[in-house]
Amino acid sequence: MIWGVDMRRRFAIAPDLNLLNHGSFGSCPREVLARQLAWRDAMEADPIAFMEAARGRLRDVVSQVAPRLGAQPEDLALVENATTGVSAVLRSLVFKPGDRLVTTSHVYGAVRNAMRWVAERAGATVVEVPVPWPVESPEQVVAALTAALPGARLVVLDWITSPTGMVWPIEAMVRACQREGVPVLVDAAHAPGHVPMDLDALGADWTTGNLHKWMFAAKGTAVLHVRKDRQAEIVPLAISHDLDRGFPLSFDQTATRDLSSWLSTPAALAFVDELGQADLQAHNNTLCAHMADELADMWGVTVPAPPTMRAALAALPTPGDVPAERAAWLHTALQGRRIEVPCVPFAGRTWVRISAQVYNHPDEYRALGRAVLELLND
What's the CATH fold of domain 32-270? Predict the structure, then answer.
């Protein structure tokens, strides 16, 4: 199945922009944006009645999302983004001096900051487990994590890493934590709509993921999944009137806010169903794999993770081993050519992280490849 140019008209992306960065914020189909606008109009037409009806409508949205994630609606709350979900969990838990909070060297920067903040206030410490990069196998990742688990108070794991675009062996990692009796919070920011998910089977204590990335929802739409035995201790960042209703209802209405992004999510689910979830994921994964290999050949580099640990994201080293401090320069220079792709400083060098989505075409990646070579050869 080939989409690319024909599919692009379904999105509001600027005609002159080469968008190879779906992973950062997603891109919303026009029909989802239209549905969001309709909800905003309804909210302004009769604000009181709208807000009074909101709770039931939000629970209906959750009931439609939950089966797609392998979850039960009563275990799922809507939040604005995965960062909010992570912070809600971290700030609900009680830490004490000497506790160790464990994550990996591939942790997302915002999550690192949240972990450090709660640890410093409690006299706890954050340990970042070095994970090899480039990586050869999932077993390397599990082994690196397992060695750091004894005595840990909490582990925070990525499902798909942000700086390096790798799909972690999340099931094996969660099982390793459970064998040691260590609670685990999964940052699944990139997972919904990107890879198959079965949260009930995964069994992590807490998992949070964005719907506005790979599931095409409007910006500011995400979920927090809390295992039933952990729900009593989790509260939203903003404590409000429904606190006594417990999780997840205490998250639904925490203050006045624009609910249109959440309420328009069924339109995003309909868009996914039109394309077919399995077909969509297969298309994006195949496009990403082919273009990562083509760019690697063009640049004379090696893709740093095996195909089994990649989906629709791939991070490649720049040709000539550009140092990490030059990442911002390269990103800005590419933006000047209307190419949007993350240039990530990681492990002492610069990496280019491509995404693949239905509106992308192979020629866009080839343009990126040529632009990088031209900029680095100037």
Answer: Aspartate Aminotransferase; domain 2 (3.40.640)
